[in-house]
Design brief:
alpha+beta; 202 residues; two-stranded antiparallel ribbon; three-stranded antiparallel beta sheet
């Protein structure tokens, strides 16, 4: 039995609400919420021969619609590490990621397809797209599955050779999770701008 096409907008509103909760939770300090955000991003954006992106059912041109993206225009081709998330270290030495408000000049409006597929996270000689980071977190770290074998790019992003913070609050940040949370924040704004009923629903 085929779905009523009007139900897709309701499902989109549901995914928007779940994404909003996941992104808010991550930036409030619950980093595990990034796994929830990864599921929502995959549901909304990722199409395969066996599954259809929800956004494609609402707007067939969804990959052409614009989204805020920290583009690679200023990245040096020989860079070995590029961190594109804002981090604040508090007086007690504890680090936390800061949610973007898209006012940085590094942000450009680009088609969703570029946002999804362009190399983004730079770790040594490894360059990963948001698509790869999202799907790795979903398929390897318990978003949808747990896998004992992970690609090198995911191991590097999840446990990078980087320490943030001071003294007992120094931590090795999970850049896979922070990249997914950042992507979720960007996708929320994309939904609000391209589908105004989302913001009213939220």
């Amino acid at each position: 039995m085929s779905r009523n096409p009007s139900s897709y907008l309701r499902l989109l509103k549901d995914q928007y609400a779940l994404m909003k909760d996941a992104v808010h939770g991550f930036y409030a300090g619950n980093e595990a919420k990034a796994n929830d955000a990864a599921i929502r991003i995959r549901t909304l954006v990722h199409s395969t021969s066996q599954s259809t992106a929800l956004l494609s059912l609402v707007a067939p041109n969804y990959m052409e619609l614009l989204i805020h993206h920290r583009a690679n225009t200023s990245d040096h081709p020989n860079a070995v590490f590029v961190l594109k998330q804002r981090i604040q270290v508090s007086s007690d030495g504890k680090p936390r990621f800061i949610r973007d408000d898209f006012t940085s000049p590094d942000y450009l409006l680009v088609p969703l397809e570029r946002w999804w597929t362009e190399n983004y996270l730079v770790m040594g000689g490894i360059r990963s797209s948001k698509k790869q980071v999202v799907l790795d977190l979903t398929n390897k770290d318990g978003g949808a599955h747990v896998d004992p074998e992970v690609p090198l790019r995911h191991a590097a992003a999840s446990e990078p050779p980087l320490i943030l913070g001071l003294n007992e609050n120094a931590v090795r940040p999970n850049l896979a999770r922070s990249t997914v949370a950042q992507a979720g924040n960007e996708l929320l704004e994309y939904l609000e701008r391209n589908f105004p009923s989302m913001k009213r629903a939220g």
